[in-house]
Amino acid sequence: MTSVLRGRPALLASVAAAIVLVWSFAAPPAHAEVFQGGCTGSATFEKANVTVTEQQPVAEPVTILPEDSVRYEGSTGQPETNAPAPFEGGITVALPLGNWTFVTWGGESTRTSADGNYAYTLPGFVPRGTGPVEVTATHTQGGQTCVVAASFAVEGSPGPLGVGAAAGTALFAAGTLAAGMKKRGVA
Amino acid sequence: MRGRPILGVLSGFMFGLFAAATLFLYGVVPLASSALWILPIAGILFGLVMAWWAPFGGSPDTAGAADVDDD
Fold first, then answer.
1. Among A24, A106, B2, B37, which one is least packed by beta carbons within 10 Å?
2. Which residue in B21, B37, B56 is closest to A165 by CB distance?
3. How far apart are CA B22 and CA B14, in angstroms?
4. Is the residue at B26 inside a domain?
């Protein structure tokens, strides 16, 4: 009787943990694809030879290079105003829990479109070859709010960071299994 | 518990954390995946299960002793 009761709670807890793990992998990302407003735009990564538009599906990540030059253009689809009108916006990265807004903009302008070139170089600590990162851009102007999301991944391999993470996984897996060692004096 | 619950909780949490990091770094899951915060919790549960089940080892003090006939 005792052995039966002893086995069942552990089995149930193991099954529960397995269900949680399967669900966590099967569940969709925290943010679904969104496209709101009448804005249009594109960003051409010149070295990577890839162009991202507002129609880019979030489920199809775009692979970019650690260093590149981006030719961008965008428009709210509204006519230019005679007097400066306020605008604001920002770019957000989706995290496992919540979001992180890493750039914002705002001000007043008569313009309703913009274009230019932007060169970037990712810092060395930014991991390469990882899973997709969902980026959402928001822009509000003239009573219209535009929201566009796309997924990006940096070309390359995780390098020592990935090896370290895998080694830590193995190490602490062993530690977790060691928790199953009976204490001294226990039958 | 017959096993080692503190070791189970700490190691289980770190196991889940490192496993989540490994999965993201090698492109298995996206950054926004719920697996990245669920795995550490699942690791804690796994550690507690191991500590509760304690299938390994056994105290030599309580190991089945052979019957000794005292003549």
1. A106
2. B21
3. 12
4. yes
| Inter-chain CB proximity B4 and A183 less than 8 Å | yes
Q: pLDDT tens for residues A61-75?
A: 999 999 999 999 988
Residue A15 has a pLDDT of 56
A169 contacts on B by Cβ (under 8 Å):
15, 18-19, 21-22
Whether residue B34 is contained in a domain is answered as yes
Question: Are B51 and A158 an interchain contact pair (Cβ–Cβ within 8 Å)?
Answer: no
Tell me the pLDDT tens digit for each residue of A11-49: 555 555 555 555 445 444 333 344 778 888 888 999 999
Q: Kindly list the residues from chain B whose CB atom is less than 8 angstroms away from the CB atom of residue A25.
A: 29, 33, 35
Tell me the domains of chain A and their CATH numbers.
29-178 (2.60.40)
**What ipTM was reported for this prediction?**
0.81
